[in-house]
Design brief:
The complex is a heterodimer of chains A (122) and B (112).
Chain A lengths: L2 E5 L2 E3 L5 E8 L8 E6 L5 E7 L6 E3 L7 E6 L4 E6 L8 E11 L2 E8 L3 E5 L2
Parallel strand pairs in A: 2-11
Antiparallel strand pairs in A: 1-3, 3-8, 4-5, 4-9, 5-6, 7-8, 9-10, 9-11
Chain B lengths: L3 E4 L2 E4 L5 E7 L12 E6 L6 E5 L3 E2 L7 E6 L2 E6 L8 E7 L6 E2 L3 E5 L1
Parallel strand pairs in B: 2-11
Antiparallel strand pairs in B: 1-3, 3-8, 4-5, 4-9, 5-6, 7-8, 9-10, 9-11
The chains are: A mainly beta (122), B mainly beta (112).
Chain lengths: 122, 112
């Protein structure tokens, strides 16, 4: 069974840093693009960042570029999101998601974690 | 960036009746490989999103066949043939053809 479990969220002051982790199990982690998607309280879904299976190709939303860093440790089956210079508007539940590509079908965000809450407030 | 616009934003539906949600993209979603990477996701209260439809019209494994997706160019539709109580939630369209990936604002489906 595919499982994605986020951890590392919490309350942080503006300007602070936090690292989210997403522990993956039940599948071959280094075969998949992985993504972070966030959802501010009461709001919709917003794509944040993606990373290629080998970790060499990160992609970022403009709103987090230069402040957030996505990475992965394929030996530990773990996805990370290092968040620096946090702002109030970064307050959200952060979901990690797996992308499936196979059998002629790609870009299926088929599995999602339960999400980790990050609250940026003084 | 591609803007995804959903209508309606709220949809009260009677149990057993059909429902339809539209999603319009500001640019074509046809990828260089010829595919349309338009997905529909459902988010029930307090839950993470769940994939319903991918590549415009393909139903994901385990999704009831009352859900269907269609569309072309920049106009797409999610249809539920007969709404059931478990379908309550917010529905999002999402494009993964071009970075940055973008979502519609969400459509809240509720029972009348």
């Amino acid at each position: 069974e595919v499982q994605l479990v986020e951890s590392g969220g919490g309350l942080i002051q503006p300007g602070g840093s936090l690292r989210l982790s997403c522990a993956a199990s039940g599948f071959i982690f280094d075969s998949h693009w992985m993504h972070w998607v966030r959802q501010a309280p009461g709001e919709g879904l917003v794509w944040v960042s993606s990373i290629s299976p080998d970790g060499t190709t990160p992609v970022y939303a403009d709103s987090v570029k230069g402040r957030f860093t996505i990475s992965r440790d394929n030996a530990r089956n773990t996805l990370y999101l290092q968040m620096n210079s946090l702002r109030a508007e970064d307050t959200a539940v952060y979901f990690c998601a797996r992308e499936v590509c196979g059998g002629g079908d790609c870009k299926l965000f088929d599995s999602w974690g339960q999400g980790g809450l990050v609250t940026v407030s003084s | 960036d591609i803007v995804m616009t959903q209508t309606p934003l709220s949809s009260p539906v009677t149990l057993g009746q059909p429902a339809s949600i539209a999603c319009r993209s500001s640019q074509s979603l046809v990828h260089n490989d010829g595919n349309i990477y338009l997905s529909w996701l459902q988010q029930r209260p307090g839950q993470p999103p769940r994939l319903l439809i991918y590549k415009n019209s393909k139903r994901f494994s385990g999704v009831p066949d009352r859900f269907s997706g269609s569309g072309a160019g920049t106009d797409f539709t999610l249809k539920i043939s007969r709404v059931e109580a478990e379908d309550v939630g917010v529905y999002y369209c999402m494009q993964a053809t071009h970075f940055p990936y973008t979502f519609g604002q969400g459509t809240k489906l509720e029972i009348k």
